[in-house]
Write a structure and sequence with these properties.
Layout (H helix, E strand, L loop, with lengths): L2 H48 L8 H13 L3 E6 L3 E8 L4 E7 L18 E4 L2 E5 L6 H17 L6 E8 L7 H7 L2 H4 L5 E12 L3 E2 L3 E4 L1 E10 L3 E2 L9 H19 L6 E10 L5 E2 L2 E10 L2 H21 L9 E8 L2 E3 L1 H15 L4 E2 L22 E10 L3 H8 L16 H18 L3
Parallel strand pairs: 3-6, 3-7, 7-18, 8-17
Antiparallel strand pairs: 1-2, 2-6, 4-5, 8-18, 9-16, 10-14, 10-15, 11-13, 12-14
Helix pairs in contact: 1-3, 1-10, 2-3, 3-10, 6-7, 8-10
Keywords: Hydrolase, Signal
InterPro entries: Amidohydrolase, Bact_exopeptidase_dim_dom, Peptidase_M20, Peptidase_M20_dimer
Pfam families: M20_dimer (PF07687), Peptidase_M20 (PF01546)
Length: 443
Amino acid sequence: MHVRPLLGTLAVALFASSAQASEADLKSRIDSLVRQDEPQLVEIFKKLHQNPELAFQETETSALVARALKEQGFEVKTGIGKTGVAGILRNGPGPVVMYRADMDALPIRETTGLPYQSNKTTAWLDNPNQPVAHACGHDAHVTWLLEVAKVMAQLKDQWSGTLVLVAQPAEETIEGAVAMVDDGLYTFAPKPDVLVAAHVIPVYPADSVALREGRRMAGTEQIDVELPGIGGHGSTPSVTKDPVVMGAMAVMGYQTIISRMVNQAEPAVLTVGAFQAGTANNIIPELATLRLNLRWYDEGVHQQLLDGIRSVTNGVAQMNGMPAERMPKFISKGKSSPLVNGKPQTDLARAALKRQLGEDKVLEGVPPMMGSEDFHMLASPYPDTRVLFIEVGSGKPDVYRNLVEKGQMPVMNHNPNFAVELPTLATGARALSSTLIAFFGET
């Protein structure tokens, strides 16, 4: 009478043993594929690093991505949102899993001194020779995407469903994801059940990853404030309306929005990143432009920031006697909502990453950051799409220990000396491939 329970116990044990063997085999296959490709990944990364392209100028990068996806059997559409690329690999019934990599670089002069340092210049705004560099790691992100495409194509026996890979332009300006959606991404690609993205982060070693549920990245908006004035000779400011002075007053007034209007329990940032006015020492100009960047997590705080900017700027203009027809203008250039990792997808990805990389290589992740992302805006037409953001370490082996024990902060993103440690390339490819396959295996 004990035969059935005994058989049942044996069946469970055999199933568990088979599942563990399958997981070990998958880990080994992913590791092997990435390991054999690692020299090529390094070469691709260096080529991308030496040839950075700014927002909506990523023509060479997108062409490279399109060629690579076609070689792996993906259906490919180019020119989405000007320079975006999407590839679809259909592999039987199952969920639709989308992975995005951003392509754009920054208008910054690189000073790393690396043998593959960028010395490229291009036209940007009013500068025909603007230095350009990958000072945020998007060259690594594109490299991951190319290897993920190859790994997933070669491991089709390990997953079932539809994989959508997206190479997105203009993340740095927070415009690219929305541009792709508005330009018909979903007339080509199916609605995603899950949307995944990853980013290098230099506070962790290059053989590790970090992820955390809840708030991860702040909402952001880029706003230009145009302050008209009445120009004239620098010797007679009394017969002008000086937009330089008005701009300076506005910049100082903005500081009270955060310190006196926003609840101190809610994080918020208002940065004036540029103040542009005038061309000569002795000419009071007709216009000043302030380029603002906002960050928030609570939408009510976002509205407070907008209301405060309008109130301060209009008040300055009125105080200086500007007529109603020459009041300030407020131009929103790009916007993204806060990025939040849900618990179910975070837990699933964490388990997959620990299996692939090892328990000690999967870190909890830093508290919510005031940096921003826009990849989740790819899912803006579909509020039920789950999103997941993974942070991939890109620092030296001792970087995190030095930060915790000695308070030594590494060179961070958007710095002229920012550099990605090369082992990051293999770590990211392994981490992302295992995570995507895990989402295909959900029951």
